[in-house]
TrEMBL record:
Role played: Binds and transfers iron-sulfur (Fe-S) clusters to target apoproteins. Can hydrolyze ATP.
CDD domains: Mrp_NBP35
Keyword annotations of the record: ATP-binding, Hydrolase, Iron, Iron-sulfur, Metal-binding, Nucleotide-binding
Lineage: Bacteria, Bacillati, Cyanobacteriota, Cyanophyceae, Oscillatoriophycideae
UniProt name for this protein: Iron-sulfur cluster carrier protein
Gene source species: Floridaenema evergladense BLCC-F167
Gene3D superfamilies according to UniProt: Fe-S cluster assembly (FSCA), P-loop containing nucleotide triphosphate hydrolases
């Protein structure tokens, strides 16, 4: 039998079996390893990110069912182990020359303020003296150019002996390329997998980034193929997950966290956006200004609780502030437009925490 059953055949039948939470192939997630075939006996290792995975029995059963369908298979043995992100090696990912740390800013859902956080963290890091680049990979709503005051910018393509090189746009101390530069704002775009992968690779490897301390990637929301392509392409120093108090406990953030962990990318922490509301322009009262008041519209403490449950840090909470939206629309990020505002202070502290966590992770 051993001459008919091959390792590649086993992997082929296992390919449709998905991680139930991420809804992605176990084979593509590199969770199936060490496949062995001895006559009709098949064995392999299933590598989880946590030994306490509540769905492990289901996953094992799905794998066994898939392999047992193959003619000639008499027994399927699945060894289950867990590998923490730090233990994972990244043999197939190529770094970008001159770029020290690539960071992903992601969210489970759209509209939670992911781009706002990514842009302000980038500008805050640049204000602190770091060399910073940004890739706006949000195919659904590439709004980083507007937020950085670069909505009219276009990438310049230069022909070099090594091929095409893109010159990034630059403002507020940040170099940036965006999906928005490539598309007509009024035309809906249907990105096909290979085309999107090509552009992502071009943004990573064919941009004149020069020396960068941080390259921040504003990811598309969710955990789809584009996200997977990005995390698989380059070695990322860490990921930051942005959420709102209402979404914080939802499966979306958990899924994002799991995707990064599964792909060996350390999750630096969660940012809770729109945590509370600070009313503007309210009169002074004998007991101080009403501006000092904060309204916990969506309740409080959710981010902290979820971060603790998921075993990651809460990097900070950003208030819902009209000035933050206005500064984004005007193309002057709040950390530059009004550094003393509550949201700017929160964002600057978040940037400092990210920088600290990246350097600690680099020493580990
Ligand atoms: N804390 C906040 N206070 C006020 N407005 C905010 C805040 N955070 C984000 N916004 C506004 O909410 C809108 C959506 O934010 P943003 O574009 O950053 O979200 P996103 O998660 O990147 O969305 P998408 O997935 O659509 O790209 C923007 O108009 C932004 O200015």
């Amino acid at each position: 039998m051993s001459d008919i059953l091959e390792v590649s055949t086993i992997l082929e039948v296992l390919r449709p079996v998905q991680d139930p939470e991420l809804r992605k192939s176990l084979v593509e997630l590199n969770m199936i390893r060490n496949v062995k075939v001895d006559a009709g006996n098949v064995s392999f290792t299933l590598v989880l990110t946590t030994p306490a995975c509540p769905l492990r029995e289901f996953i094992v059963e799905d794998c066994q069912k898939a392999v047992k369908k193959l003619p000639g298979v008499t027994d399927v043995k699945v060894d289950v182990t867990a590998e923490t992100p730090q233990q994972k090696s990244l043999p197939d990912r190529t770094g970008i020359a001159g770029v020290k740390n690539i960071l992903a800013v992601s969210s489970g859902k759209g509209g939670v303020g992911k781009s706002t956080v990514a842009v302000n963290v980038a500008v805050a890091l640049a204000q602190a003296g770091a060399k910073v680049g940004m890739i706006d990979a949000d195919i659904y709503g590439p709004n980083v150019p507007t937020m950085l005051g670069l909505s009219e910018a276009r990438v310049v393509v230069r022909q070099t002996p090594q091929g095409e090189i893109l010159e990034p746009a630059f403002n507020h101390g940040v170099k940036m390329v965006s999906m928005g530069f490539l598309i007509d704002k009024d035309q809906p775009v249907i990105w096909r997998g290979p085309m999107l992968n090509g552009i992502i690779r071009q943004f990573l490897y064919q941009v004149e980034w020069g020396e960068l301390d941080y390259l921040i990637v504003d990811m598309p929301p969710g955990t789809g193929d584009a996200q997977l392509t990005l995390v698989q392409a380059v070695p990322m120093a860490g990921a930051v997950i942005v959420t709102t108090p209402q979404n914080v406990a939802l499966l979306d953030s958990r899924k994002g966290l799991k995707m990064f962990q599964q792909m060996g990318v350390p999750v630096l922490g969660i940012v809770e956006n729109m945590s509370y509301f600070i009313p503007p322009d309210l009169p002074d009262t004998p007991n101080g200004t009403l501006r000092d008041r904060q309204y916990d519209i969506f309740g409080s403490g959710g981010g902290e609780k979820t971060a603790a449950e998921l075993g990651v840090s809460l990097l900070g909470c950003i208030p819902l502030e009209i000035a933050l939206r206005e500064s984004g629309d005007r193309g002057i990020p709040i950390v530059a437009a009004d550094p003393d505002s509550a949201s700017a202070k929160a964002l600057t502290q978040i940037a400092q925490q990210i920088a600290a966590k990246v350097s600690i992770a680099a020493l580990a």
